[in-house]
Design a protein that fits this description.
heterodimer, A: 171 residues, mainly alpha, 6 helices, 0% strand, B: 403 residues, two-stranded antiparallel sheet, 14 helices, 1% strand
Chain lengths: 171, 403
Amino acid sequence: MNAVLVIIAFTILASAAVAMSLRNLIHSALLLVANWLGVAAFYLWAGAEFVAFAQVLIYVGAVSMIVLFAMLLTRRARADAAVVPGSIDRAISALAVSGAVAGVLVFAVLQTHLPAVTPPAPAATVRQLGAQLMGPQAAALLVAGVILTVALLGAVILAAKERNSNQDDAP
Amino acid sequence: MSVVAPATDSFLERLPLIMRGWFTGLFPESLRWLAGSLLEIIAILAVFGLLFAFLTLAERKVLGRVQNRPGPNRTGPAGLLQPFADGIKMLTKEDIVPLVADRLLHFLAPVVLVAFSLLTFAVIPYGRHLVALDLDAAVLFFFAAGAGTELSVFMAGWASHNKYSLLAAMRALAQLISYELPLLLSVVPVVMLAGTLSATGIVAAQGGWTAGVIPHWFVLRPWGLAGFAIFVVAALAESNRSPFDLPEAESELIAGHLTEYSGFKYALFFMAEYFGMTALSGMGVTLFLGGWQAPCAFLRFIPSYAWFAVKLFALLLGCIWIRATFPRLRIDQLTRLAWKFLVPLALVNLGTAAFWHLTAGWDGALQIARWALALALVAGPFVLLGRRLSTGIAPRTYRYAAS
């Protein structure tokens, strides 16, 4: 069981490391997708079937497309897809941000009291998950829905404005 | 796969289990699970590989008949060996990779596509005792595995380093993302009413007959009928089938993201397309057409997997028929159909399903009212939205072409 975990962890970390070191943005994005697949494999390993499939459906299916579309639509030339190594300033700010994120995560992990002997986790069925989401967690679900709707409306407004200003440019 | 079949099942019904037991019995106890899994994988690859081969032949034959010509008839008796001749041709063709292409991604795209589309076959229950992977969240697994298609289309378009490929890939992605939504939304009522995401559970929920002849399939419910119609349209678009085959529109985008593919890689793309169509049809059978359930109580002596095969072939032939009949849509018509028609209809259908669920206790005359109200909820939005769909669009004016 642990050998599988080691392989999954290695996949996740290696894809993240290679994604950072590559100069080609598209390759980095695809490695990010591989990373998400690794996280889904980890969920499967942990016995969270539903979360694993949802991870694949949402991240590998949808979020990856947003990332790739954004990349293709914002780059002018194909050569742009390769990023030149940044300056010292950029490296320092990147290190600062990643250090801060890592600090917060490590702090949160250390603060959590993990029971020494984990009782066998009850396998949560899809029905139980649904009841949780619709019952006690309904507020969080609604807030997430509202935020996504606001983002969608914002995107529609941005896209609609652009078309109006460009109407005369049409060939 | 359940290991022990009840003795009440007929011999033919238990035959796959008996054969599986015999095969795994050849191995030592500790390796039996591995042998069983390998057998399932081999069975899926063999059955659907052959089905793919003969589906291409059936498609060409049926299309030929529709267009009043014989179709392929020279290779073997009645053209039966045509798929194998095509396979050998594809295998021996030169594999051309453009000089400036991204070689790794160019190679990975068809591989990823076929791998993901094969995964979807694992969770479909082909018979009473025939399901490779009986998951609690099987329906979710099916659509999650289908998500790999989009990634591979992008990889193919980008790696080819060809502007036609890239443009077509973007268009294909717009289509795939647009139709993913109605496809998933049309499945939600089934999950709601069956109360489970497990494919075997959904098939079991459609068991039973009224008066022994009318099956309790979901397609025979008002919400199920609407859901099935939306599912079929969205599934045709998801698997790039005509009339939604813009991604590989030969006339406009010179085969789209497949422009720079040749030889066996090209064949793999086509294989994945047919696999996708077969898997989505199989899912449609499972979700709406009662899966392996017999249509009448007295027909139960025919084994369940035969019923599944009959329904699957009926849907596949329907797809071919549609391809032979309808002209291809334009990209704006395509996205408009998805966002302005199918998605609202699917959302309304959620309400219809909820109404059906809440009125499950209605009896007698109320039963008739329940049917009438549910049918009105299905037909009303369909007519209203359908009328609004083309207002302000037609008749089309041409600014740059002589009309």
